[in-house]
Amino acid sequence: MLKMYEIREMIKLVDQSTLSELEVEAEGVRIHLKKGAAGTVSVPVEQPVAETQPAKPAAVEQTQPAPAPTAEQESKPAEPTPAPATADVEDENLHQITSPMVGTFYKAPEPGADPFVKPGDKVTPDTVVCIVEAMKLFNEIEAEVSGEVVKVLVEDGQLVEYGQPLFLVKPE
Amino acid sequence: MKETLIKLFKDAGERYISGEELSRQLGCTRAAIWKHIEELRKEGYQFEAVRRSGYRLIKSPDILTPQEIQYNLDTERIGQTIHYFKQLESTQIVAHQLADQGETEGTIVIADEQTGGRGRLGRVWHSPPGTGIWMSLILKPNIPLKMAPQLTLLTAVAVARAINRVATDLDVNIKWPNDILINRKKICGILTELNAESDRIHYLVIGIGINVNAGPETFPHELKKLATSLKAESRRSFSRARLVREICQNFETLYNIYLKEGFTPIKHLWEAYAILIGEKTRIRTIDGEFSGTVRGIDEDGVLLLELDNGIIKKIFSADIPLE
Question: Which chain B residues have a beta carbon less than 8 Å from that of A135?
Fold first, then answer.
């Protein structure tokens, strides 16, 4: 039976070659690789799925608890995300700065440096308040409002969700 | 003028071009042509001049000027505008300024040397003169902000393919999310910075650093086990301009596919180049170290690590040390 890595190897070889199509039949499995017009490889998997999927990883994925796609379930199971903050968050007079993406929250430009902002700091709309990073894409988050930072709602290095409140700002 | 002159010589290949033909083609005097050729010689171009036959170009220098990169560059946007500097603190900083001032998508800032190159988390990126590619690419994609991290994986595939085009004998791999390795040593790092307002992307600046022609002896001792260059792995030198051109072309191809069809076709290619899939590994994140087996990436490009207790952990940011 063909292994996943063997199929990947084939994709790579076709990608690097001048071939536009490749069909392989071995041990009852047929694979047809075809390069798109622009040169990428598409993989219409024609073989019986059951044969190429090693049973184990598939089963493991199903044993995952709630399939919350973005949460870091097992590392902080007891922490109901920003629960303590919700009281503040509901304060209608305060502006929330929320995260535009899932990623890691950094309070400072580099480890050990001073934080971008701390409670009591005045911000303007273009003040950088933190960085959210995922897959080495660094997003400098700006305050987008003028006012005073009242509270930082997340810890340095914490995984934050899309739309999760990060700061509370008292607008001017 | 200089661009046209270089193109004429390159297109002519081995053939001599007479001074008369050059002056006709460029619409200037033969004295002016001679002056331009002298200037090009100072940049490192070598010409052979033969009486009654004319001139021919016998060697182009390994420089990253727009005319070298853009010669036969087959793209519509990527690399069509190039800002080249002998020395810069960081190409990222200049690219941000240009993007802020409205520079168009596909523009590249490139430097022969960086004095303040940066890596992840403020780490120093060693970028000595004349040996590497230190560049930043400006993008303005019309995609939801949460998809933007996928572009860092796309960039890795584009660079891996480009390296494979110029060094067909080397086995190029990608380590999640976007380090490029040869023989399990790092040859290229990619760092992307995003400028956005709420959910709207203003622009991205993708920084790419590649060790090309640095000799193995130039790596500091503590880096020797971790980093390498194309030259150190293959014992020959490469044209940096050609490699940049290949990056531009491969990037544009993949980017067009991505904008049309989404991440799935890119994911297939990324996995084909990926190292560590199916391997036991330790991953360092800011909230601790995790050991498990790498299961691949999900449809967002997030790393899936199967922990020893069987639970799949999603990794968004991490260092993956290689033994």
Answer: 149-150, 152-153, 177-178, 301-302, 316-317
Residue B133 — very low, low, confident or very high, per pLDDT cuts 50/70/90? very high
CB B64 within 8 A of CB B240: yes
Q: Note the pTM of the prediction, 2 decimals.
A: 0.84
In this predicted structure, the answer to whether residue B276 has a pLDDT above a threshold of 80 is yes
Sorted by where each starts, the structural domains of chain B and their CATH numbers stand as 2-59 (1.10.10.10), 66-273 (3.30.930.10), 280-315 (2.30.30.100)
Q: Give the least confident one: A6-15, A146-155, B156-165, B202-211.
A: A6-15
**Domains of chain A, CATH where assigned:** 4-46 (no CATH), 90-171 (2.40.50.100)
Contact between chains at A101 and B193 (C-beta distance less than 8 A): no
Q: Is B143 on the interface with A (CB under 8 A)?
A: no
> Could you give the CA distance from residue A125 to residue B111 in angstroms, rounded to a whole number?
33
Decide: A2 and A26 in contact? Cβ < 8 Å: yes
pLDDT band at A50 (very low <50, low <70, confident <90, very high): very low
Question: Given CA atoms A112, A118, A124, A128 in this order, what sign does their dihedral have?
Answer: positive
